[in-house]
Design brief:
- This protein has one domain: HIT-like (HIT family, subunit A, 2-Layer Sandwich).
- The chain has seven helices and 16 strands.
- It has an eleven-stranded antiparallel sheet with strand order 1-2-5-7-9-8-13-14-12-11-10, with helices on both faces. Strands 4-3-6 form a three-stranded antiparallel sheet, with no helix packed on it.
- Strand 1 and strand 2 form a beta hairpin.
- Belongs to the galactose-1-phosphate uridylyltransferase type 1 family.
- It holds the Pfam family GalP_UDP_transf.
- GO terms for molecular function: UDP-glucose:hexose-1-phosphate uridylyltransferase activity; zinc ion binding.
- This is Galactose-1-phosphate uridylyltransferase.
């Protein structure tokens, strides 16, 4: 195991302005402005009268697996698929006093109903990975940590793929900076940016947004990865990338990133993306890597939406190295998955997958790669045609 510093030198894009604010109940809000923004740097205060924040959730340990389950009962009352005029992530109006007081390009704020936090430390309970690894009966700990909402746009509908390249780049900058800041907070062991898209995935808001969870432990999925690295060796990610780049499942390849359908894909639609050099998380990416990612990730998602006649539900999960361990051998990685296996069919996790974790694939990874490449080609052609029409129209005007 090779560990690197948990506070890498973060290189910020000076063209993307940041404006920190505080919401009425004390939660942090940060506006990230596009380089070509037309918005004023002055933002309105939050004038709502809000009650106290909910009590911090508590974690209970499953002694059969050692995993921790956060019981966040306050989340039961969160907003569920509101109409557009009551969108809590839209810029605030007198008729809709929302979570974001002013108009914005990208906004990040602490979740009102978090699964972890707002406490970052609990003076009344043991903390740390050694304590959390111990197995026992009836073990309870405070769900310290932080949960943030990342609003991709003030629009009430859309997703990352519907953003402009400029806006996509601003979102990626927000991911990088928040990863950097959250990784330095006490009690945080892993930072996880992600986007849930589509009602089939379970979204409760149609507004284009994602979230960032900051956990007080290393997640179970990453623990399994650590076991694989300890069995295989520290070059696992580099070797996977080399093997996939030489194969026939590559979807997109740039100077800095490669996207591919993995060899043993579980889901009908599953795409992984890796940076070409070792980087533990978004905070360690260069400006050039973020620039290219804004183009490639957007192309990938727009292609995924062209697989069928209606938008594809998905989870865009950005796996990052833990804050304090295995930073030298766990690489930043996108794992994008969708349960959609046909135009009108979804893959449900039934007995074998849900109960035993033993997966059965419905589509060969090679066929899935062919389908996604063809969908991206259709999207690229449509975008090129639209650009040509726009350019022709401008020339004749």
């Amino acid at each position: 195991m090779t560990d690197l510093t948990n506070t890498p030198d973060f290189v910020a894009d000076a063209g993307i302005a940041r404006h920190p604010h505080t919401l009425a109940d004390g939660r942090e809000l940060i506006y990230f402005d596009d380089p070509d923004t037309t918005l004023s740097p002055d933002r309105a205060p939050d004038l709502r009268e809000l009650g106290p924040r909910p009590a911090n959730a508590r974690m209970r340990q499953d002694p059969l697996s050692g995993e921790w389950v956060s019981i966040a009962a306050a989340r039961q009352n969160r907003v569920f698929l509101p109409p557009a005029h009551l969108d809590p992530l839209a810029p605030s109006t007198p008729e809709n006093p929302s979570e974001v007081p002013s108009n914005y390009d990208v906004a990040v704020f602490e979740n009102k109903s978090p699964s972890f936090g707002p406490l970052l430390e609990d003076a009344d309970a043991p903390t740390g990975l050694d304590d959390l690894r111990t197995i026992g009966l009836g073990r309870i700990r405070t769900s310290v940590g932080r949960c943030e909402v990342v609003c991709f746009s003030p629009a009430t509908e859309g997703s990352f793929g519907s953003l402009t390249v400029t806006r996509a780049r601003t979102v990626i900058e927000a991911w990088a900076e928040r990863t950097h800041k959250l990784s330095q907070m006490p009690g945080i062991e892993q930072v996880f940016p992600f986007e849930n898209r589509g009602e089939a995935i379970g979204v409760t808001l149609h507004h284009p947004h994602g979230q960032i969870y900051s956990y007080p432990y290393v997640t179970p999925r990453t623990q399994r990865l650590i076991d694989s690295i300890e069995s295989y060796g520290p070059t696992l990610f580099a070797d996977i990338l080399e093997s996939e780049q030489a194969g026939d499942r590559v979807i997109l390849r740039g100077e800095h990133w490669t996207a591919f359908v993995p060899f043993a894909a579980r889901w009908p639609v599953e795409v992984h993306m890796l940076p070409h050099r070792h980087v533990a998380d978004f905070a360690g990416t260069t400006l050039a890597e973020r620039d290219e990612l804004a183009v490639l990730y957007r192309r990938l998602l727009r292609g995924i939406d062209q697989l069928y006649s209606t938008p594809t539900p998905y989870i865009g999960a950005w796996h990052q190295a833990p804050v304090n361990v295995h930073r030298g051998d766990i690489r930043l990685m996108l794992q994008l998955t969708s349960p959609r296996r046909a135009e009108d069919k979804l893959k449900f996790l039934a007995g074998s997958e849900a109960a035993m974790g033993a997966w059965i694939g419905d589509v060969t990874p090679e066929q899935a790669a062919d389908n996604i490449r063809a969908a991206i080609a259709r999207t690229d052609a449509a975008d090129a045609a639209a650009e040509s029409t726009s350019t022709t129209g401008e020339a004749h005007s």
